[in-house]
Every structure is written in C-alpha cells, then in structure tokens.
Write a structure and sequence with these properties.
The chain has 454 residues and is of the alpha/beta class. It has 14 helices and 26 strands. The protein has a seven-stranded parallel β-sheet with strand order 3-2-4-1-5-6-7, sandwiched between helices. A six-stranded mixed β-sheet has the order 12-10-13-15-25-24. Strands 23-22-19-20-26 form a five-stranded antiparallel β-sheet. The mean pLDDT is 92. It catalyses: cob(II)yrinate + 2 L-glutamine + 2 ATP + 2 H2O = cob(II)yrinate a,c diamide + 2 L-glutamate + 2 ADP + 2 phosphate + 2 H(+).
C-alpha cells in the first residue's frame, strides 16, 4: 500500500475540492508520479475526470453503500502500486448521514484509512475569517486532524499571503499553497456537477493540464509530499472471495458512450472477478448489443442530452427490444438505462421514441425529483433472488409520465425510513432509477451471472 495519501476536503460543496484534486493529479502525473484516485460518496462524474488525468480507474469509498470493511479493502487493493493516493471528499468535511456525528463523512473515511486531510478553502471575499473556519474544524474533527490547507480562488498573491498568515498564526496548520482565480481553466457543468469526462475529454484534458501548471506556481509540493506520508497500514480482513464455477463464461454487454457512462468501477471489477467477460458497445452510435452477450448491464447517464441521436437509432432499438423481450436476455438497467428501455422520453415537451422494452414513458423535469442513499429489496424472483438487499443511490431529474402493467422491482427505503416501490420487473429484466452498489450484495450478483449459464 502507498505510504503517501491525502484526503482533499472542504468546509462545504462549491469550495473547490474537485478543482484542487484534479490540479494536484495533473501536476503529479506530469511529473511522472503514479497517482491513484478515490472519491468519497456515490458520485460518478468526478472519478471519471480522475481517470482521465491519471489513466487509472478511480474508486468510490462510501460507508453507507459498502461499509467500513469495503472501504479498507478497496483502498488497499488499488493503492498498492501507486506513489500517492488522492481521495476527493464529499460535501463538507464533517457532513455525513447524521447531523450529530461524523459517520459516513469524509472525516470518517479519513479516520478509517489513517489519512491526512488537506482542507480546500474558497477565500473569495474573505481574509482573516478563514482562520476561524479552520479553527472550527480543529475543534470538531476529533481524531481527524486537518494537516494542511490549500486556498482556492485567491484574488492575488498578496490576498493569499494575508490569508495564509492569519491561518498559520491562529491555528498552526500550514498553508501548502493557493490557486489564483482563472476563468479560462473552468470546466463545463450541468445539474450533477461537471459535464462527464466521456463527453468532454478532448476539451477537458488541456484545461486540466493548465490547471496543474497554475497550481504548481504557488504550491509547496515538497511540504505537501511530507504531509502525505503516514505511518502504519490499514488493517483489513480477506472476507468472502468471488467464486468462478460457471460451465461456460458469462458475457455481459455494457452500454458505454457519451450518453451512458455511470458505472461504479467496483461493480465492473466484481463482474470480472466472478468470471464474466465485459462486452462494451455504444448505443448512441447505433451499435447493437454484441451477439455473443448472455447478459446486459445498462447504467445511467444523460440520455436526454443525446435524445435526438438515440431516437434515430431505430434498427438498433428494434433489435434490442427483440433480444430483451423475445430472446429473454438477462438485463439490469439503472436510471438513464431504465429511461431508455421505456417506450418514450419526453424532453422540453417533445416525445422521442425509445426501445419499448418497459411499458412506460418518462419525462425530463426542471426540478430534482429524487436524491439520496437507498436500500433496495427485490420484491420477487427475477434476475436477482427475491428478498435480495442492495444498497445504492438515486439522483434524477425525470419522472414517469405514463405507465401500464408495471410490476415494481424493489421496495425502497432510505436512512430516514420507507420511500416506497420503484422500477419494473419481468422474469429476465430488472430496472429502476436507483444505482446499485454490487459489493453490498455479491451473492445476488453471482446468481444473476449464473442465469442461463448452468
């Protein structure tokens, strides 16, 4: 395991955690450093940018979805051959499942992994008050100490120097560097945050490299390197290992392109560890489900952004409908994939035909319809055994406009209680808005892969 690790946190969302994390990754990678990225929480988009810069998949560390042991295992497995691990936090440093404790927060993850915390602070329109914020985190962070600070959106070198002096004088926490405000290196955003790396990699890579150079001008990299050094390993137990016992190898088709790219790397790793072969295809480009596929996994994304292209792929959608319905291709669909397998998607009042494998139409909305962690219980035998329980997350700006004969897939609850029923099921198709975290229920995933293979 890498002896150098940092968790990049902030007082709140919007302070620049992603900006500074990507700048550090770009700077270090340009210097030949092997950087392993991680992301606290259920987000898909930020890890895709980590991978764009480092060339390595970035893994989610989520206490709610996977539990403490899963976090330790994930970190241990993927940090071993890295020179440094950079973990991007979520929301504010102390923001977790409860307002009365740090459980599920970035601070909780830092504690589990014996990881120093670097606090990113947006100092636009702020000076000495920044020291009070750092002092407050010192008082409330418990076992998770703030080891350093990086200032974001400094108006000038003089502004950053003034804030640095106040923080170091009042708290003793070193300011490791600062980033001057520069609109030319800002990345495009939409309602989930950044526009995905799969959509913008040609435009984003030069900006990220420029961001790294901009930070390098005002960063004490040697000092940051020393702060990142830790003593002692993270203790893990081996636990249950995936079994490979199929008479023939499962071949899982995975939709992946500009419109559909929301997949937890841990999910894909688990499928391959269990013996499955992943077959990638691009539905937005009109590519059909590979003929060799025995299973289909359709993740989320932004189908509404590419609805005109998708609606034109009539041959692809017709063949897909036939394979799912008549051929009984064992299929799991989540969020954007769930919407695409419906009969139509409405965007700005216009109806666009979709696959038609699920008897519903969905509609994009201006307001957020659902957000938060979910525990999902499978209601009947389908691709997963009845009563299988997964943990996952939901976030979507669409709703069901019309449906007929929908047998719900899951009973859904959150950390705060029951949410209701969700999704659609048939004997060979399970779909819903929630994104499942496979390591929370590996036995059910194994049962899915076993279908049609024994």
């Amino acid at each position: 395991m890498s002896d150098r690790r940092l968790l990049i946190a902030a007082p709140a969302s919007g302070n620049g955690k992603t900006t500074i994390t990507l700048a550090l990754m770009a700077l270090m990678t340009a210097n030949g450093t092997r950087v392993q990225g991680f992301k606290v929480g259920p987000d898909y988009i930020d890890p895709s940018f980590h991978q764009l810069i480092t060339g390595r998949p970035s893994y989610n560390l989520d206490v709610w979805m996977g539990g403490e042991e899963d976090i330790r295992k994930t970190f241990f497995q993927h940090s071993q051959d890295a020179d440094i691990s950079l973990i991007e936090g979520v929301m504010g440093l102390l923001d977790g499942v409860s307002s009365n404790a740090n459980w599920g927060s970035s601070a909780h993850v830092a504690h589990l992994l014996n990881c120093p915390v670097v606090l990113v602070m947006d100092i636009h329109a702020m000076a000495r008050s920044a020291a009070a914020i750092v002092k407050g985190f010192q008082a409330l962070s418990g076992d998770t100490a703030v080891a350093g600070v990086i200032l974001n959106r400094a108006g000038s070198v003089a502004h950053a120097t003034m804030v640095q002096s106040a923080i170091e004088q009042e708290t003793g926490v070193p300011v490791l560097g600062f980033l001057l405000h520069d609109a030319s290196v800002q990345l495009p955003e939409r309602h989930l945050g950044l526009v995905t790396a799969a959509e913008t990699q040609d435009q984003s890579r030069p900006k990220l490299e420029a961001l790294g150079r901009l930070l390098a001008d005002h960063l004490d990299l040697d000092r940051l390197w020393r702060v990142a050094m830790v003593d002692g390993d993270v203790k893990i137990s081996k636990g249950r290992q995936p079994r490979v016992h199929f008479k023939s190898r499962p071949r899982v088709a995975v939709a992946f392109d500009r419109a559909f790219n929301f997949y937890y790397p841990a999910n894909l790793d688990l499928l391959t560890a269990m013996g499955a072969e992943l077959l990638w295809f691009r539905p937005t480009e009109g590519e059909h489900i590979p003929a060799r596929a025995t299973h289909l996994y359709w993740g989320g994304g932004f189908p509404e952004e590419y609805v005109h292209l998708l609606a034109q792929q009539t041959a692809m959608m017709g063949a897909m409908r036939e394979r799912i319905a008549a051929d009984g291709l064992s299929t799991l669909a989540e969020c954007g994939g769930y919407m695409f397998l419906g009969e139509a998607l409405w965007v700005n009042g216009e109806r666009f035909p979709m696959v038609g494998a699920i008897p519903m139409e969905t509609e994009m909305t201006a307001s957020l319809q659902e957000i938060g962690y979910r525990e999902l219980t499978v209601l009947a035998n389908s691709i997963f055994p009845v009563d299988s329980r997964f943990r996952g997350h939901a976030y979507h700006h669409s709703k069901i406009r019309r449906s007929t004969g929908m047998n719900p897939a899951y009973a859904v609850s959150s950390a705060r209680g029951s949410v209701g029923l969700e999704g659609y099921r048939s004997q060979t198709l399970l779909a819903g808005y929630s994104h499942l975290y496979f390591p929370s229920q590996p036995e059910a995933v194994e049962a899915w892969l076993t279908q049609r293979m024994d």
